[in-house]
UniProtKB/TrEMBL annotation:
GO terms for cellular component: mitochondrion. This is tRNA modification GTPase TrmE. One of its GO terms (molecular function) is GTPase activity. Belongs to the TRAFAC class TrmE-Era-EngA-EngB-Septin-like GTPase superfamily. TrmE GTPase family. Keywords: GTP-binding, Nucleotide-binding, tRNA processing. The keyword Thylakoid does not apply.
């Protein structure tokens, strides 16, 4: 609830509430003290030491619909009190300079975090790790700008240090280097924030949809023995070892027998697989090890399209239907798989699986969790990773202007100074004081009511 009339809020209690003390007691209707709405805890935060920087009061009440409705209705009878809009508290905090834009984005991510890895990343951002880093760089650029101004004004003066210009260039080099290191992060933060994308690809009837359903633990995709059942991309999100995963089931890859719609599905399948962070290339193990069908699968594996997908990094081969392969659980099977892969030039890590009996399931889950953790999950990095494309764009822009400054002739230092100003502005746009109305509108739509 938002109010311009906080003193009246006190009317919901009989005793006076002290600032920042938990007040336990009955909550009354402000217009009818005989009407007890609930018993709860109230907290009063006088501004500016509050989340928004303004006077705030919190009511902790029982969560039943009738209790919440009666307290809301009672608050609504106080003049100038109304329901807050989505993100209004945070917007006020931003307007009152209690938070910068990166912290706000961290709060929004915290609200929407679904996995432990996302929560950890969001907490770091909400606590200002990105803000501190970007603000440090901006302050250093401002320092450089001050030196350049002195150089412009007093370069004729004998007192000005002779090597000030080269000192400034060294400082600019340092900033560029720091930002480049931050940008070169394998998109770690963005991937953790949005989820690691995983595409399941392979020929029809290899069990791709069955695997998706197993991962999602519900019937997301249609499973049938008819080849070409999946025609478009079916997507679901899940949590694997605390990491967010966006899994996509795709149309089976085949070159003959597909109609126009399925052909379009196959095109999308290949596109999705190429774009994904991880690929599971699924084959029917029965066909792979069957003397009649084995050579057909081998020929298909040589197809340029299949070969291209298999040679992409982060691609694993899954030999499904292990339950249909004789002695699949024998120790010799590992050697057999190794030989099969070597003979076909397949270097991808390969897992034997049965979506029916769940043989190999633990092995696949462990492989994925460890791979994600090793590749994108080391969140304990000294510097926090980038979390948004928006930040990346402004940082690239900042580097671009710093490089133009460096290339500008010393004689044209006034033009160079303008580039420094643009570089500092680019960083200011990330933390949010320059031209960010559209960003704010989009951001606050992600918040829940109130917060
Ligand atoms: N025996 C056995 N059958 C399986 C296994 N996994 C899937 N199947 C069956 O294989 C058939 C095809 O499975 P799907 O999951 O629809 O295969 P798909 O690769 O998605 O097929 P498309 O949609 O044509 O690309 C279904 O009848 C499944 O029940 C398995 O591990 N063992």
């Amino acid at each position: 609830m938002v109010n311009q009339n906080h003193t009246k809020i006190g009317k919901l209690h009989k005793k006076k509430i002290r600032p920042r003390d938990a007040h336990v007691g009955k909550i009354f209707h402000p217009r009818d003290k005989s009407n007890v709405l609930d018993s709860g805890i109230s907290l009063w935060f006088p501004g500016p030491k509050s989340y928004t920087g303004e006077d705030m009061v919190e009511f902790h009440i029982h969560g039943g619909i009738a209790v919440v409705n009666s307290v809301m209705e009672a608050l609504g009878t106080i003049p100038n009190v109304r329901m807050a809009e989505a993100g209004e508290f945070s917007r006020r905090a931003f307007d009152n300079e209690k938070m910068d834009l990166t912290k706000l984005e961290g709060v929004a991510d915290l609200i929407n975090a679904e996995t432990e890895a996302q929560r950890r990343l969001a907490v770091r951002q909400a606590h200002g790790e990105l803000y501190k880093m970007y603000e440090t760089w901006r302050q250093r650029i401002v320092g450089v700008m001050a030196k350049i101004e002195a150089f412009i004004d007093f370069s004729e003066d004998e007192n000005i240090e002779e090597d000030i210009y080269s000192e400034v260039c060294r400082e600019v080099d340092w900033i560029i280097n720091e930002i480049e290191l931050h940008l070169d992060d394998k998109r770690q933060g963005e991937i953790m924030r949005n989820g690691v994308s995983l595409s399941i690809v392979g020929p029809p009837n290899s069990g791709k949809s069955t695997l998706l359903n197993r991962l999602a633990q519900r019937q997301v995709a249609i499973v049938s023995p008819i080849a070409g059942t999946t025609r478009d991309i079916v997507e679901t999100t899940m949590n694997i070892g605390g990491y967010p995963l966006v899994v996509r089931d795709t149309a089976g890859l085949r070159s003959s027998g597909a109609d126009v719609i399925e052909t379009e599905g196959i095109r999308r399948a290949v596109e999705s697989a190429k774009e994904a962070d991880i690929r599971l290339f699924m084959l029917d193990a029965r066909k792979v090890f069957d003397s009649d069908n084995g050579s057909t699968t081998s020929k298909l594996l040589q197809k340029t399209e299949w070969h291209e997908l298999l040679s992409l990094p982060h691609t694993f081969v899954v030999l499904n239907m292990a339950d249909g392969v004789p002695s699949s659980e024998s120790p010799n099977m590992k050697v057999k798989i190794k030989e099969w892969a070597q003979d076909r030039g397949i270097t991808n890590q390969t897992v034997l699986l049965s979506c029916a009996s769940m043989y190999g399931w633990e092995c696949l889950m462990q492989l994925l969790a460890e791979h994600i953790k090793e590749t994108w999950g080391s969140n304990s990095a000294q510097h926090m990773p980038l979390t948004k494309i928006r930040h990346r764009q402004h940082l690239k822009n900042c580097i671009k202007h710093l490089n133009v400054f460096k290339e500008t002739d010393e004689e044209m230092v006034v033009l160079g100074a303008e580039e420094l100003r643009k570089a500092s502005k680019a960083l200011g746009q990330i933390t949010g004081r320059v031209g960010i109305e559209d960003v704010l509108d989009a951001l606050f739509s992600e918040f829940c009511i109130g917060k």
